[in-house]
Amino acid sequence: MQQSSAPTDPTTSPDKLRKGWTTGACATAAAKAAYHSLITGSKVAKVAITLPRGQQVEFKLESLEIIDEITAKASVIKDAGDDPDVTHGAEIFSTIRLTQQPGIQFKAGKGVGTVTRPGLKLAVGEPAINPVPRQMMEQMIGELAHHYDQPGDVEITISIPNGEELAKRTLNGRLGIVGGLSILGTTGIVKPYSCSAWIDSIHRGIDVAKASKIEHVAACTGSTSEQAVQRYLGLADVAMLEMGDFVGAVLKYLRKHPIPKLTIGGGFGKICKLAMGYINLHSKESKIDFSWLAEQAKLVGADEALSKHIVNANTALEVLETSLKADLNLPTHIAALAQKQITERLDDNMSVNVIIVDRDGQVVGETVEG
């Protein structure tokens, strides 16, 4: 299969990660090709579009078909560059149908989701084609219609043949987007490992929880802690935020869009980093200071031998297991320090608690609400 060319970027060099395209940019390119073929009767192999920040970029088409005098379909293979995007390599189809209805209507085809819960940027019942991709397609249709003296009244259906299966690897289900993927993108370009889509999903999860009148949400660092916390607190799926390492993304958004109660859940190592003041818990961004951890152990009763053992420990798991064997209430102490870091970054009216779980999903430390 052909791959769409990477965005032109003067900062990109062979030793740097390659940028790619959003699903919104791919859908726009395919829609432009399909519409152009309808109103001109000619087919092209490539098409250029303008991204939201003004860059002119070109896509190779994977397919282009004029179905009848009012319908055409084109597709582009999504190239996410060096980002581990689940939609990399997916074929994005745009079907254009000329209509008598004024304006542009958007439809969800096979593999594109539909919004079923309030709180997102789209109304319930709308196809999960986000506002910026819609604006890109509207602008492109408008420009071509003006150039060729056409009314520009069309129906645009976006489809991704394997989109429903790919969506199972995203947070769409939790956000109430059913039936497939979302058509995303605010700049048109995917920056490798920027994790912008993940952070955006955190924000949308908070929006959906608020719209659903949820008063207690839980953000967890991984699947084990998430399952344990959800089971322990009896929370609904809509109340769970798949935070990963991005504590900062949760706290910054909740500060502006508060919910009465927040629980942060995670393994001992991740919560140690949070207790130290880090809000990005990824190993590349934060490290555990075992000397600091030994000092905290002393505060809850560790003797010199245990303190020295902690200083020389290889992993946070080793520290956890050693402290539990010594009946040292270190996890709860660390949870309390993490709770303090969280409350300092949130609205005063929010209640916060922290839960630490072990590798088996058992709660080994927690704070009271504060």
Walk me through what this model shows.
- The chain is of the alpha/beta class and 370 residues long.
- The protein folds into 2 domains: 20-190, CbiD-like, CATH 3.30.2110; 196-366, no CATH class.
- The chain contains 12 helices and 18 strands.
- Strands 4-5-6-10-7 form a 5-stranded mixed sheet.
- A hairpin with a 5-residue loop joins strand 2 (46-50) and strand 3 (56-60).
What is the CATH homology-level superfamily of the largest domain?
A: CbiD-like
Cα(first) to Cα(last) distance is 56 Å
Task: Tell me the number of strands.
Answer: 18
Give the count of helical stretches.
12
H-E string: EHEEEEEEEEHEHHEEEHEHEHEHHHHHEE
Q: List the domain count as a whole number.
A: 2
Q: What spatial order of strands do you see in the largest sheet?
A: 4-5-6-10-7
What CATH architecture of the largest domain do you see? Answer: 2-Layer Sandwich
Poorly predicted sequence stretches spanning 5 or more consecutive residues: 1-15
Overall pLDDT level: 92
Structural class: alpha/beta
Major beta sheet summary: 5 strands, mixed
Tertiary shape: elongated
CATH level 1 name of the largest domain: Alpha Beta
Q: What is the CA-atom radius of gyration, in angstroms?
A: 25 Å
CATH topology title of the largest domain:
CbiD-like
